[in-house]
Design brief:
This protein is mainly α. Helix content is 80%, strand content 0%. It has a single domain, classed as Na+/H+ antiporter like fold (Up-down Bundle), CATH 1.20.1530.20.
Length: 412
Protein backbone atom coordinates (compact mmCIF):
# COMPACT_ATOMS: atom_id res chain seq x y z
CA UNK A 1 0.00 0.00 0.00
CA UNK A 2 1.37 3.38 -1.04
CA UNK A 3 0.82 5.99 1.67
CA UNK A 4 0.68 9.75 1.18
CA UNK A 5 3.85 11.81 1.72
CA UNK A 6 2.13 13.61 4.65
CA UNK A 7 1.99 10.30 6.55
CA UNK A 8 5.77 9.97 6.35
CA UNK A 9 6.18 13.65 7.22
CA UNK A 10 4.18 13.09 10.40
CA UNK A 11 6.31 10.06 11.26
CA UNK A 12 9.42 12.15 10.63
CA UNK A 13 8.51 14.86 13.14
CA UNK A 14 6.94 12.61 15.80
CA UNK A 15 9.71 10.02 15.78
CA UNK A 16 12.48 12.63 15.82
CA UNK A 17 11.08 14.25 18.96
CA UNK A 18 10.55 10.91 20.69
CA UNK A 19 14.06 9.66 19.83
CA UNK A 20 15.62 12.94 20.95
CA UNK A 21 13.96 12.74 24.35
CA UNK A 22 14.92 9.08 24.69
CA UNK A 23 18.57 9.94 24.00
CA UNK A 24 18.46 12.54 26.76
CA UNK A 25 17.21 9.88 29.19
CA UNK A 26 20.47 8.00 28.51
CA UNK A 27 22.55 11.19 29.00
CA UNK A 28 23.34 11.41 25.26
CA UNK A 29 22.88 14.46 23.00
CA UNK A 30 19.53 14.51 21.20
CA UNK A 31 21.43 14.41 17.91
CA UNK A 32 22.51 10.81 18.58
CA UNK A 33 18.88 9.78 19.11
CA UNK A 34 17.81 11.41 15.85
CA UNK A 35 20.53 9.61 13.88
CA UNK A 36 19.91 6.19 15.40
CA UNK A 37 16.18 6.49 14.73
CA UNK A 38 16.91 7.46 11.13
CA UNK A 39 19.16 4.44 10.63
CA UNK A 40 16.50 2.18 12.17
CA UNK A 41 13.63 3.27 9.89
CA UNK A 42 15.81 3.76 6.81
CA UNK A 43 16.51 1.45 3.84
CA UNK A 44 19.27 -0.42 5.73
CA UNK A 45 17.11 -1.84 8.57
CA UNK A 46 13.30 -1.62 8.78
CA UNK A 47 12.83 0.00 5.34
CA UNK A 48 9.92 2.12 6.57
CA UNK A 49 11.46 5.00 4.58
CA UNK A 50 12.53 3.87 1.09
CA UNK A 51 15.63 5.18 -0.68
CA UNK A 52 13.52 7.06 -3.26
CA UNK A 53 11.42 8.67 -0.52
CA UNK A 54 14.52 9.87 1.33
CA UNK A 55 16.55 11.02 -1.65
CA UNK A 56 13.80 12.50 -3.84
CA UNK A 57 10.59 13.40 -2.03
CA UNK A 58 12.25 14.60 1.19
CA UNK A 59 15.15 16.41 -0.49
CA UNK A 60 13.41 19.77 0.00
CA UNK A 61 13.17 19.16 3.78
CA UNK A 62 16.94 18.82 3.93
CA UNK A 63 17.44 22.03 1.94
CA UNK A 64 15.05 23.97 4.20
CA UNK A 65 16.74 22.67 7.36
CA UNK A 66 20.23 23.53 6.12
CA UNK A 67 19.07 27.02 5.17
CA UNK A 68 17.64 27.69 8.63
CA UNK A 69 20.72 26.25 10.34
CA UNK A 70 23.08 28.41 8.25
CA UNK A 71 21.01 31.52 9.03
CA UNK A 72 21.24 30.79 12.77
CA UNK A 73 25.01 30.29 12.60
CA UNK A 74 25.46 33.63 10.84
CA UNK A 75 23.24 35.29 13.44
CA UNK A 76 25.50 34.06 16.23
CA UNK A 77 28.47 36.03 14.86
CA UNK A 78 28.14 39.54 16.24
CA UNK A 79 31.06 41.83 15.48
CA UNK A 80 31.61 42.81 19.10
CA UNK A 81 32.14 39.13 19.97
CA UNK A 82 34.48 38.50 17.05
CA UNK A 83 36.65 41.60 17.42
CA UNK A 84 39.18 40.07 19.82
CA UNK A 85 38.98 36.55 18.38
CA UNK A 86 39.17 37.04 14.61
CA UNK A 87 42.89 36.19 14.44
CA UNK A 88 42.37 32.91 16.25
CA UNK A 89 39.38 32.03 14.07
CA UNK A 90 41.32 32.62 10.85
CA UNK A 91 44.42 30.66 11.88
CA UNK A 92 42.45 27.71 13.30
CA UNK A 93 40.22 27.53 10.21
CA UNK A 94 43.16 27.41 7.81
CA UNK A 95 45.40 25.02 9.75
CA UNK A 96 42.77 22.48 10.89
CA UNK A 97 41.52 22.14 7.30
CA UNK A 98 45.01 21.91 5.79
CA UNK A 99 46.31 19.40 8.35
CA UNK A 100 43.27 17.15 7.93
CA UNK A 101 43.66 17.32 4.14
CA UNK A 102 47.41 16.62 4.14
CA UNK A 103 47.36 13.75 6.65
CA UNK A 104 44.39 12.00 5.05
CA UNK A 105 45.89 12.36 1.57
CA UNK A 106 49.22 10.83 2.63
CA UNK A 107 47.83 7.96 4.69
CA UNK A 108 45.00 6.95 2.34
CA UNK A 109 47.32 6.94 -0.68
CA UNK A 110 49.59 4.53 1.20
CA UNK A 111 47.03 2.17 2.80
CA UNK A 112 44.28 1.87 0.16
CA UNK A 113 46.20 -0.63 -2.04
CA UNK A 114 46.45 -3.07 0.89
CA UNK A 115 42.63 -3.28 1.17
CA UNK A 116 41.94 -3.96 -2.53
CA UNK A 117 42.41 -6.99 -4.78
CA UNK A 118 45.55 -7.60 -6.82
CA UNK A 119 44.02 -6.24 -10.04
CA UNK A 120 43.22 -2.93 -8.36
CA UNK A 121 46.67 -2.75 -6.74
CA UNK A 122 48.29 -3.10 -10.16
CA UNK A 123 47.04 0.31 -11.29
CA UNK A 124 49.65 3.11 -11.50
CA UNK A 125 49.83 5.13 -8.29
CA UNK A 126 49.88 8.60 -9.90
CA UNK A 127 46.83 7.91 -12.07
CA UNK A 128 44.67 5.98 -9.62
CA UNK A 129 45.33 5.97 -5.88
CA UNK A 130 46.81 9.48 -5.66
CA UNK A 131 43.85 11.24 -7.39
CA UNK A 132 41.31 9.41 -5.19
CA UNK A 133 43.37 10.14 -2.05
CA UNK A 134 43.42 13.84 -2.98
CA UNK A 135 39.61 13.84 -3.21
CA UNK A 136 39.18 12.00 0.11
CA UNK A 137 41.62 14.44 1.75
CA UNK A 138 39.75 17.50 0.48
CA UNK A 139 36.38 16.14 1.65
CA UNK A 140 37.88 15.30 5.06
CA UNK A 141 38.57 18.98 5.67
CA UNK A 142 34.82 19.60 6.05
CA UNK A 143 33.15 20.14 9.43
CA UNK A 144 29.38 19.75 9.87
CA UNK A 145 27.88 23.08 11.02
CA UNK A 146 24.43 21.61 11.65
CA UNK A 147 25.62 19.06 14.21
CA UNK A 148 27.63 21.66 16.12
CA UNK A 149 24.84 24.24 16.18
CA UNK A 150 22.34 21.60 17.32
CA UNK A 151 24.46 20.77 20.38
CA UNK A 152 25.18 24.44 21.14
CA UNK A 153 21.45 25.20 21.08
CA UNK A 154 20.56 22.11 23.13
CA UNK A 155 22.95 23.03 25.96
CA UNK A 156 22.57 26.84 25.68
CA UNK A 157 26.33 27.25 25.29
CA UNK A 158 27.71 30.84 25.37
CA UNK A 159 31.17 32.37 25.70
CA UNK A 160 34.42 32.93 23.77
CA UNK A 161 34.89 29.24 23.01
CA UNK A 162 31.41 29.04 21.46
CA UNK A 163 32.01 32.25 19.50
CA UNK A 164 35.26 30.88 18.03
CA UNK A 165 33.56 27.57 17.21
CA UNK A 166 30.69 29.26 15.36
CA UNK A 167 33.13 31.47 13.47
CA UNK A 168 35.12 28.41 12.43
CA UNK A 169 32.18 26.46 11.04
CA UNK A 170 30.98 29.57 9.17
CA UNK A 171 34.33 29.98 7.39
CA UNK A 172 34.92 26.25 6.93
CA UNK A 173 32.15 25.92 4.34
CA UNK A 174 33.77 28.47 2.03
CA UNK A 175 37.24 27.00 2.52
CA UNK A 176 36.15 23.42 1.79
CA UNK A 177 34.50 24.52 -1.47
CA UNK A 178 37.88 25.88 -2.60
CA UNK A 179 39.70 22.75 -1.40
CA UNK A 180 37.29 20.43 -3.20
CA UNK A 181 37.31 22.42 -6.45
CA UNK A 182 41.10 22.48 -6.48
CA UNK A 183 41.31 18.78 -5.64
CA UNK A 184 38.84 17.80 -8.38
CA UNK A 185 40.82 19.62 -11.06
CA UNK A 186 44.13 18.21 -9.75
CA UNK A 187 42.73 14.65 -9.71
CA UNK A 188 41.29 14.91 -13.23
CA UNK A 189 44.58 16.21 -14.58
CA UNK A 190 46.55 13.42 -12.88
CA UNK A 191 44.26 10.79 -14.40
CA UNK A 192 44.40 12.29 -17.89
CA UNK A 193 48.03 13.48 -17.74
CA UNK A 194 47.04 17.00 -18.85
CA UNK A 195 48.39 20.26 -17.49
CA UNK A 196 46.46 21.64 -14.55
CA UNK A 197 44.08 24.50 -15.33
CA UNK A 198 44.69 26.76 -12.35
CA UNK A 199 41.94 29.16 -13.33
CA UNK A 200 39.39 26.35 -13.08
CA UNK A 201 40.78 25.20 -9.73
CA UNK A 202 40.99 28.61 -8.04
CA UNK A 203 39.18 31.40 -9.88
CA UNK A 204 35.85 29.68 -10.48
CA UNK A 205 35.21 28.59 -6.85
CA UNK A 206 36.42 31.97 -5.55
CA UNK A 207 34.02 33.74 -7.92
CA UNK A 208 31.14 31.53 -6.75
CA UNK A 209 31.97 32.22 -3.10
CA UNK A 210 32.06 35.98 -3.79
CA UNK A 211 28.68 35.73 -5.53
CA UNK A 212 27.19 33.85 -2.56
CA UNK A 213 28.53 36.53 -0.19
CA UNK A 214 27.01 39.27 -2.34
CA UNK A 215 23.66 37.47 -2.47
CA UNK A 216 23.62 37.15 1.31
CA UNK A 217 24.36 40.84 1.84
CA UNK A 218 21.68 41.90 -0.65
CA UNK A 219 19.13 39.59 0.99
CA UNK A 220 20.07 41.01 4.40
CA UNK A 221 19.59 44.58 3.19
CA UNK A 222 16.16 43.72 1.78
CA UNK A 223 15.14 41.90 4.97
CA UNK A 224 16.21 44.89 7.10
CA UNK A 225 13.89 47.12 5.07
CA UNK A 226 11.06 44.58 5.10
CA UNK A 227 10.92 43.97 8.87
CA UNK A 228 10.41 47.69 9.49
CA UNK A 229 6.86 47.22 8.12
CA UNK A 230 6.05 44.16 10.25
CA UNK A 231 5.84 44.38 14.03
CA UNK A 232 3.78 41.41 15.20
CA UNK A 233 5.88 38.38 16.14
CA UNK A 234 3.91 35.96 13.95
CA UNK A 235 4.29 38.11 10.83
CA UNK A 236 8.01 38.58 11.50
CA UNK A 237 8.42 34.78 11.47
CA UNK A 238 6.81 34.56 8.03
CA UNK A 239 8.99 37.33 6.62
CA UNK A 240 12.19 35.79 7.97
CA UNK A 241 11.41 32.26 6.76
CA UNK A 242 10.43 33.65 3.36
CA UNK A 243 13.71 35.57 3.11
CA UNK A 244 15.80 32.55 4.07
CA UNK A 245 14.07 30.25 1.59
CA UNK A 246 14.22 32.89 -1.16
CA UNK A 247 17.97 33.27 -0.60
CA UNK A 248 18.47 29.50 -0.74
CA UNK A 249 16.41 29.17 -3.88
CA UNK A 250 18.37 31.86 -5.70
CA UNK A 251 21.69 30.41 -4.58
CA UNK A 252 20.82 26.87 -5.69
CA UNK A 253 19.41 28.13 -9.00
CA UNK A 254 22.74 29.78 -9.88
CA UNK A 255 24.96 26.99 -8.56
CA UNK A 256 26.08 28.92 -5.46
CA UNK A 257 26.45 27.80 -1.85
CA UNK A 258 23.08 28.21 -0.13
CA UNK A 259 24.80 27.59 3.22
CA UNK A 260 27.23 30.45 2.72
CA UNK A 261 24.58 32.86 1.41
CA UNK A 262 22.32 32.24 4.42
CA UNK A 263 25.21 32.54 6.87
CA UNK A 264 25.92 35.99 5.45
CA UNK A 265 22.20 36.85 5.63
CA UNK A 266 22.15 35.92 9.32
CA UNK A 267 25.38 37.85 9.95
CA UNK A 268 23.93 40.96 8.28
CA UNK A 269 20.74 40.78 10.33
CA UNK A 270 22.69 40.36 13.59
CA UNK A 271 25.01 43.29 12.91
CA UNK A 272 22.98 45.79 10.86
CA UNK A 273 19.57 45.69 12.56
CA UNK A 274 19.28 47.23 16.02
CA UNK A 275 19.62 44.65 18.77
CA UNK A 276 16.02 44.62 19.92
CA UNK A 277 14.69 43.78 16.45
CA UNK A 278 17.48 41.36 15.56
CA UNK A 279 16.96 39.55 18.87
CA UNK A 280 13.27 39.27 17.99
CA UNK A 281 14.09 37.87 14.55
CA UNK A 282 16.39 35.17 15.89
CA UNK A 283 13.99 34.53 18.76
CA UNK A 284 11.19 33.46 16.41
CA UNK A 285 13.64 31.20 14.58
CA UNK A 286 14.72 29.57 17.86
CA UNK A 287 11.06 28.78 18.54
CA UNK A 288 10.95 26.43 15.55
CA UNK A 289 14.56 25.15 15.51
CA UNK A 290 14.04 22.01 17.58
CA UNK A 291 11.64 20.22 15.18
CA UNK A 292 13.77 21.35 12.23
CA UNK A 293 16.93 19.89 13.79
CA UNK A 294 15.12 16.67 14.61
CA UNK A 295 13.70 16.18 11.11
CA UNK A 296 17.01 17.02 9.45
CA UNK A 297 19.17 14.62 11.45
CA UNK A 298 16.63 11.82 11.35
CA UNK A 299 16.69 12.13 7.54
CA UNK A 300 20.49 12.20 7.66
CA UNK A 301 20.39 8.86 9.48
CA UNK A 302 18.17 7.31 6.80
CA UNK A 303 20.80 8.16 4.15
CA UNK A 304 23.47 6.00 5.78
CA UNK A 305 23.75 2.52 4.25
CA UNK A 306 25.06 -0.03 6.75
CA UNK A 307 25.73 -2.62 4.05
CA UNK A 308 28.03 -0.29 2.09
CA UNK A 309 29.76 0.85 5.26
CA UNK A 310 30.60 -2.71 6.36
CA UNK A 311 32.43 -3.43 3.11
CA UNK A 312 35.29 -1.02 3.88
CA UNK A 313 35.08 -0.83 7.68
CA UNK A 314 38.87 -0.98 8.17
CA UNK A 315 39.54 1.92 5.81
CA UNK A 316 36.68 3.89 7.37
CA UNK A 317 38.25 3.58 10.84
CA UNK A 318 41.64 4.62 9.46
CA UNK A 319 40.05 7.65 7.80
CA UNK A 320 38.33 8.66 11.05
CA UNK A 321 41.50 8.41 13.13
CA UNK A 322 43.71 10.24 10.63
CA UNK A 323 41.13 12.99 10.12
CA UNK A 324 40.80 13.38 13.89
CA UNK A 325 44.58 13.70 14.19
CA UNK A 326 44.70 16.35 11.48
CA UNK A 327 41.87 18.38 13.03
CA UNK A 328 43.37 18.21 16.53
CA UNK A 329 46.93 19.11 15.46
CA UNK A 330 45.84 21.88 13.10
CA UNK A 331 43.33 23.41 15.52
CA UNK A 332 45.81 23.45 18.41
CA UNK A 333 48.58 24.97 16.26
CA UNK A 334 46.22 27.59 14.86
CA UNK A 335 44.97 28.47 18.34
CA UNK A 336 48.54 28.95 19.59
CA UNK A 337 49.54 31.13 16.60
CA UNK A 338 46.29 33.11 16.86
CA UNK A 339 46.79 33.66 20.63
CA UNK A 340 43.43 32.15 21.47
CA UNK A 341 42.26 31.71 25.09
CA UNK A 342 43.48 28.64 26.97
CA UNK A 343 40.14 26.82 26.73
CA UNK A 344 40.15 27.23 22.94
CA UNK A 345 43.70 25.88 22.59
CA UNK A 346 42.91 22.80 24.67
CA UNK A 347 39.49 21.77 23.40
CA UNK A 348 38.62 23.40 20.06
CA UNK A 349 39.94 20.45 18.05
CA UNK A 350 37.44 18.07 19.66
CA UNK A 351 34.58 20.36 18.70
CA UNK A 352 35.53 20.23 15.00
CA UNK A 353 35.12 16.48 14.56
CA UNK A 354 31.47 16.25 13.30
CA UNK A 355 30.98 15.57 9.60
CA UNK A 356 27.68 14.99 7.83
CA UNK A 357 25.63 16.46 4.98
CA UNK A 358 28.32 18.46 3.18
CA UNK A 359 30.68 15.46 3.32
CA UNK A 360 28.13 13.06 1.83
CA UNK A 361 27.16 15.58 -0.86
CA UNK A 362 30.75 16.14 -1.98
CA UNK A 363 31.45 12.39 -1.93
CA UNK A 364 28.47 11.72 -4.21
CA UNK A 365 29.57 14.48 -6.58
CA UNK A 366 33.11 13.05 -6.72
CA UNK A 367 31.73 9.55 -7.31
CA UNK A 368 29.73 10.71 -10.33
CA UNK A 369 32.75 12.62 -11.69
CA UNK A 370 35.33 9.82 -11.36
CA UNK A 371 33.37 6.56 -11.68
CA UNK A 372 33.70 6.50 -15.51
CA UNK A 373 37.52 6.58 -15.34
CA UNK A 374 38.13 4.80 -11.99
CA UNK A 375 34.99 2.73 -11.23
CA UNK A 376 36.38 0.45 -8.49
CA UNK A 377 38.32 3.16 -6.68
CA UNK A 378 35.43 5.63 -6.93
CA UNK A 379 33.05 3.12 -5.35
CA UNK A 380 35.65 2.37 -2.68
CA UNK A 381 36.01 6.09 -1.96
CA UNK A 382 32.25 6.53 -1.58
CA UNK A 383 31.95 3.53 0.74
CA UNK A 384 34.88 4.69 2.88
CA UNK A 385 33.40 8.16 3.35
CA UNK A 386 29.86 6.87 4.02
CA UNK A 387 31.16 4.35 6.56
CA UNK A 388 33.35 6.92 8.29
CA UNK A 389 30.45 9.39 8.38
CA UNK A 390 28.16 6.81 9.99
CA UNK A 391 30.64 6.04 12.76
CA UNK A 392 31.64 9.68 13.19
CA UNK A 393 28.08 10.96 13.48
CA UNK A 394 27.38 8.59 16.36
CA UNK A 395 30.57 9.48 18.29
CA UNK A 396 31.53 13.09 17.47
CA UNK A 397 28.52 14.70 19.26
CA UNK A 398 29.91 13.41 22.57
CA UNK A 399 33.26 15.07 21.77
CA UNK A 400 31.53 18.38 21.03
CA UNK A 401 29.57 18.24 24.27
CA UNK A 402 32.73 17.35 26.21
CA UNK A 403 34.67 20.27 24.72
CA UNK A 404 31.90 22.76 25.52
CA UNK A 405 31.67 21.37 29.07
CA UNK A 406 35.42 21.54 29.66
CA UNK A 407 35.46 25.10 28.31
CA UNK A 408 32.88 25.97 31.00
CA UNK A 409 30.23 27.20 28.55
CA UNK A 410 27.41 24.69 29.02
CA UNK A 411 24.73 26.41 31.06
CA UNK A 412 21.99 23.78 31.39
Amino acid sequence: MSLHILFYTGILFLLSQASGRLAQRFKAPRLVGYLLAGILIGPSVLKLFSASLVQDQFAVVTEIALAMIAFSIGGSLRREKLRDLKGAILWITLLQAFCAFALVLGVMCFVMPFFLDSASRAQPLLKSFLPIAIIIGAISAATAPAAILSIIQEYKSKGPFTTVLLGLVALDDALVLIFFSFASVAAKNLISGDLMLWQDAILIPVAKIAAALFLGFVAGFVLRKAVSYFHHRDTVLGVVIGSVLLTSGLALSFGLSALLANMVLGFYVANHIRHRRSDEIFGVIRDIEEPIFGAFFLLAGTHLDLHLARAVLGLAFILILVRYAGKLIGAYTGAVIGKAPSSVRKYIGLALLPTAGVTIGLALEAYHNFSPSLPILSETMLNIIVGATLINELTAPFAVRYSLSRAGEIHT
